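Quick question, first post here. What does this chain look like in 3D?
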Amino acid sequence: MSIELLIQAALNGFGLAVVYILVALGLTLIFSILDIINFAHGEFYMLGGFVTYYAFAVFGVNYFMTLVLAVLVVGAAGVLAERVVFRHLRGKTLNAFIVSLGLLWVLQASAQLSFGVLDKSVPSAVSGIVRVFGLIMSRERLVVIVTASALMAALYVFLKFARTGQAMRAVAQDPDAAALQGVNIEAVLALGFGVGCALAGAAGALLAPVFAVSPTMGALPVVKAFIIIIVGGMGSLPGAVLGGLLLGAVEGIGTLFMTSAAVNMLGFLIVIAILLVRPRGLFGVA
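> Answer (accepted):
Ran it through. Tokens below.
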């Protein structure tokens, strides 16, 4: 087996991994700020897919404008969910767990009633392939990788340099100290939840032309996201990125040797192996 084939397989894995990293980053951001594990996160991914379907496939809006629209719509839905559902559940892990499961079923059932149960296809925004150093990639996947990477970079810049992003980091580290410095805790919590959901919506919008859109489309990405954040370490944004790239490389190369069902098991085997050696994940703190 040639090294080019292995690199090609890893590259194919990265094409999906960067999108799952967006979902994982949203989950991690919400967990860091609100101390809530949002099991309904996949449904916000699904909402981003349906925004893309109706805006791009049905009404003919420009695809990249559709991406912006999906981020705004899903982000607003996240802010609403925090205000209505999760506002008083910060730190109440068990209660938030139960409520998020309930929200998952409500959103999924609402999508089935509103959009139907059948899969809906979204046409490709770009066509053709790109060849670089003997490696082949479709332009569609290239757009996905570049856009997802740009969103990750934008999130880093926002959290590192923007005043609101710094407020989010302060709340994640010590909410009481942040409040004493004049940070509006309630506004930061709502915005943080909204940004986390917007990342999931962007991921759903990016993969809508790649896979079919359906009310249950968020199940697999959220499972992948949980694997990524457990491997990387709960609450660690760099860990989520590294965990996603690791998962993408392993699954991409794994497709050369085993069936898709076996490849899906690899992620859980990685989780088990890493937690046995390092229970808090690669970048997690004790």
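The mean pLDDT is 87.
The chain has eleven helices and two strands.
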